[in-house]
Amino acid sequence: MGQILFNKPFIAGKELYYIAQAVTYGNIGGDGRFTEQCSELLQELTGASRVLMTPSCTAALEMTAMLCDLQPGDEIIMPSFTFVSTANAFVRVGAKPVFVDVRADTLHLDESQIEAAIGPRTRAICPVHYAGVCCEMDRINEIALSHNLLVIEDAAQAVNAFYKGNAAGSLGDLGCFSFHETKNYICGEGGALCLNSPELIERAEIIRDKGTNRKQFFRGQVDKYTWVDVGSSFVPSEIACAFLYGQLEMFDVIARRRHEIDEIYRVLLGPLESDRLLRLPFVPKHCGTNNHMFYVLLPDQNTRDELMDHLRQQGIQSVFHFVPLHSSPMGQRVAHSNGTLPVTDRVSQCLLRLPFFYEIKYEDQLRVVQELTKFLRNRAVTITSEQGEMQSRKAA
Ligand SMILES: *Cc1c(COP(=O)(O)O)cnc(C)c1O
Q: What is the C-alpha to C-alpha distance for residues 316 and 318, in angstroms, rounded to an integer?
């Protein structure tokens, strides 16, 4: 029996053709026509005032820290259950991440715990749309408004995800996307920054282009281009954007296929969830997910680890996810947790992500589920209601 990979980057078809075109056009540096076309497609998708392409989501997050003029000692509220870049982008400028626990049902920043973490130095809230399902943005924006805070979405996993009909990336002041090869739409390494108010555009363009007003110069708004502000090299290569354009033009096809894979797992794993041998991802009714990943929550860490081992022995790759940032050496040095984070700790121990990519075959999904079923039914450890997940799920 063959190996089943966890991820296989999908080539939509025209990527190499568009790269060849970019080379032929003679502009493979930054901000050529493919970069502009990618921006335009993402502006249409999100309705953002402007979308600027970047070399990664990490770069987009770093831009937000500069754009918001975050100062040493400023505090940013975020989950600990996230990728390092969410925190690093702010730590680089001396700001301090303040971690709040996640909800047991959606694994998102728990909006009911945000206000308790706000202090005199709090400047921003950074919700992470985990698994391509949006956070409770109405409540988060309401809190931000009443405390005069910025909202910076880490929408790395949430390109083409929606909240009450509005696209991720357009739900806060600023939104950051990733096109890393592990995400839904890819170009190797890539990202974008969504600017949701027109006042942010001019300075963002300058920061993105090494602190120069080159964009204004090319538009004929100034007669020479020069150094006017802080900035860095946040313009991606035109070659990467040419590749990405080949993916973005296949947006719906990719989205539909991911939805189908998700449905198959849900149907096949339903009986295990009914018998409380695992828990499936919860998507609130008002959230349109982009099906970024498929995870299962197991009753405890031993079950998770042994299941992972069992799958590996059967030639099936599965992976756990974030090591909580508050437990990392750097997190302990530079960040602060508001209280304990019991849900974060438990979820990181009990979560397992299953193989999920465009070209996965139905038979392979079936084999994954059969192995899960064999292992979990034999082990017969169930999720208890004291663990809270099922209860809060009903309440949601
Ligand atoms: C992937 C990811 C990032 C980083 O994206 P890059 O494009 O690799 O820099 C940041 N935050 C989250 C939540 C992610 O999943």
A: 6
